[in-house]
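This section describes the prediction task in plain terms. A model, or a person checking by hand, is given the sequence of a single protein chain and must write out its three-dimensional structure as a string of tokens. No templates, partner chains or ligands are provided. The sample shown here is typical of the held-out split.
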Amino acid sequence: MILLGSTGSIGVNTLLIASKFHLEVEVLVAGKNIELLNQQIKIHNPKLVIISNIEEIQKVNHPNVKAGEVAILDAIENSTSNLVVNALVGFTGLKPTLKALECGKKLALANKESLVAAGKFIDTTNIIPIDSEHFGLWYLYDKTKTIDSLLVTASGGSFRDMPLEKLKNVSVKEALNHPNWSMGNKITIDSATMTNKLFELIEARWLFDTKACDAIIEPKSIIHALINFKDGSTTAHIANVSMQLPIAYAILEKVNEEILTKVDLLKIQNLEFRAIEKDRYPIWELKDELLHNENLGVVINSANDFAVAKFLDGKIGFLDISKISIATVNKFHNLKVQNTDDIFLANDEVKRFVMELTI
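The expected answer:
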């Protein structure tokens, strides 16, 4: 396989699955965590290593090291591996997604931004999602029954129980303290604002070809997805908190041995469900518009990307993230994207708008 984003949480878990099933890793792509990358190189012995910064090549303990986006795209095109695992974070993951599909490779996709920004132009036939919610939907999907709607769950994020009046003053450190999952900074902030769940609904819209998608909060993150059928019945996917199960299926397609410890319902005792309320998660007011306007994915993706960066840099408050996203979607409401080139142009235009926006 080619693993993009090897030092992130998805990448680390992917390599654990690779070790468990003795899978070859042809290419490792990482960002700034060179120390962890060197440990991974020692264990998996890839043929090629790619990092983001050319100035750090000498720090990598491997004879074949390259740097930058072009090197990633060339590696995808020229590798013998038929599987690309895209666990890159952010808009930077889109070009590798497009290249992998162009080359006819199977794509295990953990990069949310690819489908959110460019789902309109992506054939999902060769995509297997690495995500607990979409994996749950895939696991439950039964084409022999008439499906009414898809439902994914949210943890509620770092501030699900915080009094509303305190949200405007929360710190970056508090926002990064997720109650259930160990994730990167960007996705943890997105979980706290509920933007991550909006992204997952947009992804589900493309993966399962339906706009009948919604989400609810299940604080224990034991139920990951549900499917409502026309006959009035509902099925649920229940599994312990770990990304290794969806990763294993994405890589192997079929799994016949235990990956996770089974859920003990007697230990859980009870489950709680909550609505996603707009006073706590203002971004949720955009849900229906984003599901029905296929041009706006790149707008919300780019606006949120730059807003989160501003928050992490201490330049804006937590609640300003959603304010920026909503203001940007309103500004670009009539945007029409005709091809993938338009996606990249729109990303740049949104960036300029957000950089100049005052909240």
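For orientation: The chain has a mean pLDDT of 94.
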